[in-house]
Amino acid sequence: MAMTLAEIRAKLQANENRGSGKSQGDNAIYAHWNIPENTTARVRFLPDANTKNSFFWVERAMIRLPFAGIKGQADSKMVNVQVPCMEMWGEACPILAEVRPWFKDANLEEMGRKYWKKRSYLFQGFVRENPIGDDKTPENPIRRFIISPQIFNLIKNALMDPDMENLPTDYSAGLDFNIKKTSKGGYADYNTSTWARKETALNADEAEAIEKHGLYDLNDFLPKKPTDVELRVIKEMFEASVDGQPYDPDRWSNYYKPSGFKGGSGVDADALPEAKPVAQAKPAVATPIATVEPDDDAPVATAPVVTPTEVKPSSQKAEDILAMIRNRKASS
Fold first, then answer.
1. Calpha distance 69→303 (Å, rounded)
2. What CATH number does the domain containing 184 carry?
3. In this structure, are residues 258 and 79 in contact, taking their beta carbons and an 8 Å threshold?
4. What is the pLDDT of residues 315-332, one digit of tens each?
5. H/E element holding 127?
6. In the chain, how many domains are there?
């Protein structure tokens, strides 16, 4: 069963207290980063089909490994290979273990940021107002959204606001989210994005789309957890990348490969397998009233270095965390 807004707030707070993909040609991913400057895309997020997920999003953490071309190809340009960060599964990442100490040295900090994990958050929902003129709504209008940390923090912080009474994904009393694009210092800025103030119900067409196509299990769009062999390959690729070597398809293409590379049987992280929606019960409906670059969260040079042993496991159940919070309240 999906969690209530109060339970989501409790788990977000618990997370704070503990230590703090690309379209396959179906146009399913809505490229909100392509909206014109000073315009707004209004979207309506939907729940995850995976009822074990406490939230209506999943987090993705990837590391980009740049290589000086491809071995054996004349005049090959620089290529990038994306590999999953083990911290996505609450485990120590061999690359970050190597990179963290670099932030103690000002001369290595820039290199450290190059190899630091890039977070993004995957949501699904409807695009209700679309300022992208040439964007066409696919047959299945339930789109996926790759949300950067800048926008995600606005979403998360608003969920903690006591003035928000219902889950924003509620079919009859949910809230739209307004993605507003401006610019700051020559870069796109989304800090003025906000939740709508007025609750609205899904309209008949949206309800029909959910009934017909179902919701996505967002986990289907996360990379596969690396095996021990794949971890050794990732470490080897990382070392070769830092040393300025070209990508070697004979050694690595059966594991991980650059976007668009045709050889080998490995994973192209920009072309993950298409997932199938999960059928949902029909909701009750009231009367209708640039390639994305996720922000990185690399440590600053003056910040204390976190050792791999400090990585918290993600296997602790949300129910256990909520039970502890309830017990504290009962005993206070």
1. 34
2. 3.90.198.10
3. yes
4. 344 444 334 434 544 554
5. strand 118-129
6. 1
pLDDT, mean over the chain: 81
Cα gap 248→236, rounded to integer Å? 11
Provide φ and ψ at 63, rounded to 5°: -120, 130
Instruction: Mean pLDDT check: name the lowest of 123-127, 214-218, 303-307.
Output: 303-307
pLDDT tens digits, one per residue of 175-189: 999 999 999 988 999
Do 216 and 147 form a contact (C-beta atoms < 8 A)? no
Helix residue ranges, H only, the chain: 5-19, 94-99, 106-114, 149-159, 204-213, 228-242, 249-252, 318-331
Residue-number span of the structural domain to which 292 is assigned: 5-331
Query: Which among 276, 257, 274 has a CA at the least distance from the CA of 265?
Result: 257
- The pLDDT assigned to 239 comes to 95
Position with higher pLDDT, 6 vs 36: 36
In DSSP notation, 232-269 reads HHHHHHHHHHHTTPPB-HHHHTTTB--TT--SSS-B-T
Is the Cβ–Cβ distance between 185 and 15 less than 8 Å?
no
pLDDT confidence of residue 10: 72
Q: Are 9 and 160 in contact (CB under 8 A)?
A: yes
- Contact indicator for 219, 201 with CB cutoff of 8 Å: no
**In terms of pLDDT, which residue wins out, 280 or 52?**
52
Q: Are strands 79-84 and 177-184 parallel, antiparallel or unpaired?
A: unpaired
